[in-house]
Automatic annotation (TrEMBL):
Belongs to the PduL family. It is found in: Bacterial microcompartment. Its EC number is 2.3.1.222. Its main location: other. GO terms for molecular function: acyltransferase activity, transferring groups other than amino-acyl groups; metal ion binding. It comes from the Bacteria. Pfam families: PTAC. One of its GO terms (cellular component) is bacterial microcompartment. Keywords: Acyltransferase, Bacterial microcompartment, Metal-binding, Transferase, Zinc. This is Phosphate propanoyltransferase. The gene is pduL. Its cofactor is Zn(2+).
Length: 246
């Protein structure tokens, strides 16, 4: 029996559970402050605080595949928390093997586990592996190529799940209202960088109540605009077509 689960629904459930647990565990005096105005999650000085992050190649795994790759009873061990609450880079890595035994020796696993395993690459990674990975939004893996994952305890053959992750922006409801967008809309990311400024279209809005404002682009995109040396980043709704049709 198979079940298709939308990744955005999964992340929304995880984040909502984390926020609820944090609220329930807050000190009573803090909870009782009905007159205080809480700043929206991730906001600074009364406005959204945009973060743009390079999402390097990584892998998401099911509980079953974690045990196959790292040994019976194994679980993902957090090594570094990610900016989005409840998500982390694990201590574990896997080797990825593509056609003709081309390989990437150490690909980081991200947690928590998922209902299906998925490998996210940049374009140059897919060339190195010899895999024609399509650009897809996370979770949309139907009809995508597979690969072999190798861990210290075993290997897993993925029949599908290798993608080039499409650029997207995480945001909460307050962020969405600020920009005048909704979940599923497209935005533009404008990066100002010396001699290589760039505007990225088609940045998918992924909104839920517990997200912080963060754009994810891949390694190739980050290098193309020299993101590490950028002097400014700006997020805006995609411009609407003019009445003339151009």
């Amino acid at each position: 029996m198979s079940m298709t689960v939308d990744r955005m629904q999964i992340e929304a459930l995880v984040r909502s559970a984390i926020r609820q647990a944090q609220s329930q565990g807050a000190p009573a005096a803090h909870q009782a402050s009905s007159t205080s105005i809480e700043s929206p999650l991730g906001w600074v000085d009364g406005k959204p605080n945009l973060r743009v992050s390079i999402s390097a190649r990584h892998c998401h795994l099911t509980d079953e595949h974690v045990e196959i790759l790292f040994g019976k009873g194994s679980v993902l061990e957090p090594d570094k928390d990610l900016y989005q609450d409840g998500f982390f880079a694990a201590k574990q890595t896997v080797m990825v093997v593509g056609p003709r035994r081309r390989m990437l020796p150490s690909v980081r696993v991200l947690g928590p586990t998922r209902p299906f395993s998925q490998l996210e690459l940049a374009f140059t990674d897919s060339i190195s592996l010899g895999i024609k990975a399509p650009v897809r939004h996370s979770g949309k893996i139907e009809g995508t190529p597979g690969c072999v994952l190798v861990g210290p305890a075993g290997s897993v053959q993925l029949d599908q799940g290798v993608i080039r992750a499409a650029r997207h922006v995480h945001m909460n409801d307050h962020d969405a209202a600020h920009f005048g967008v909704a979940n599923g809309d497209m935005m533009q990311l404008v990066v100002t960088s010396n001699d290589c400024s760039m505007t990225f279209d088609d940045v998918l809005v992924r909104a839920d109540k517990a997200a912080k404002l963060e754009v994810h682009i891949d390694t190739d995109e980050g290098n193309a605009c020299n993101l590490d040396a950028a002097s400014a980043v700006h997020l805006q709704p995609m411009p609407k077509p003019c009445a003339c049709g151009h």
